[in-house]
Amino acid sequence: xxxxxxxxxxxxxxxxxxxxxxxxxxxxxxxxxxxxxxxxxxxxxxxxxxxxxxxxxxxxxxxxxxxxxxxxxxxxxxxxxxxxxxxxxxxxxxxxxxxxxxxxxxxxxxxxxxx
Length: 115
Hints:
Layout: H1 4-14, H2 27-32, H3 35-43, E1 45-50, E2 68-73, E3 88-94, H4 97-114
Antiparallel strand pairs: 1-3, 2-3
């Protein structure tokens, strides 16, 4: 049985606690992945150069079923690529090809909607 002091302590610890399911990987996570999974993700990667700050809330990243990794790239690492004058360059790695395809479809829909 929990006494009043313990209940207040638990309440303080849990106040403001947020729990979120987030399959986004970090750089450290990439080092822990099996080589086969990492290779698969590298095959399912895309690079996007945005002319304005990305509208992250519109991309439906919460609907991705597998793991994914997103990171900003500097312009120097895109030598020879056609990124225009953008400095808002991101690479996206997807575990599942279907997630990559859905993401690209969503990007295309947004481009048509907001162009």
